[in-house]
């Protein structure tokens, strides 16, 4: 299936986001302006449009992370923290909604959890129902605090095989 130790080959920062949020400091990072046509009237970033943009601005054919602080919009989801297009080796992740004013210190750990989940998709893993699996989908950011950073044994075996 894929390598569960996979990492992003590059990161493209979209919007006013700090590169220090990425714990892997060896990843090449650069900034791009968000294309105005990707943002709707409510300030949300269209996942489909930003992934097309990502194909144009990427420097690597390996996995590219598009990281933004704008909320993501994708039908039929009410809220979405990240999305991966495996065949194109692109993932978009948003920090919007990962914290609230009562928990500002949660951003880094929650972001790492979302990144681990999207890397799982890039490795070929699908969503899992096991509560002990990073591939379990979440709806609320607080669920990220309980979701582990690694796949369950079933998903790990699938990734290895």
Observed structural traits:
two-stranded parallel ribbon, Collagenase (Catalytic Domain), five-stranded mixed beta sheet, 7 strands, alpha/beta, globular, 161 residues
Brief synopsis:
This protein has 161 residues and is an alpha/beta fold. It contains three helices and seven strands; from the N terminus they run βββαββββαα.
Task: Characterise the protein shown here.
It is a single chain. By secondary structure, the chain is α/β, with parallel strands linked by helices. The chain has one domain (10-160): Collagenase (Catalytic Domain). Helices cover 22% and strands 17% of the residues. The protein contains three helices and seven strands. It has helices spanning 47-57, 107-122, 153-160; strands at residues 10-14, 29-32, 45-46, 64-68, 72-73, 82-85, 90-94. It has a five-stranded mixed β-sheet with strand order 2-1-4-7-6, with helices on both faces. It has a two-stranded parallel sheet with strand order 3-5. The chain starts with 9 loop residues before the first strand and ends with a helix. 34% of the residues are buried. The model has no long low-confidence stretch (mean pLDDT 90).
């Amino acid at each position: 299936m894929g390598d569960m130790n996979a990492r992003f080959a590059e990161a493209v920062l979209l919007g006013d986001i700090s590169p220090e949020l990425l714990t892997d400091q060896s990843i090449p990072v650069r900034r791009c302006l968000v294309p105005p046509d990707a943002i709707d009237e409510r300030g949300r970033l269209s996942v489909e449009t930003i992934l097309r943009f990502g194909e144009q601005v990427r420097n690597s054919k390996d996995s590219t992370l598009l990281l933004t602080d704008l909320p993501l919009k994708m039908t039929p989801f009410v809220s979405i923290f990240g999305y991966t297009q495996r065949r194109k080796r692109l993932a978009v992740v948003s920090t919007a909604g990962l914290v609230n004013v009562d928990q500002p210190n949660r951003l880094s750990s929650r972001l790492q959890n979302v990144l681990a989940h999207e890397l799982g998709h890039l490795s070929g893993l699908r969503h899992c129902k096991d509560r002990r699996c990073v591939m379990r989908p979440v709806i609320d950011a607080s669920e990220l605090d309980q979701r582990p950073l690694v796949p369950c044994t079933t998903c790990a075996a699938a990734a290895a095989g």
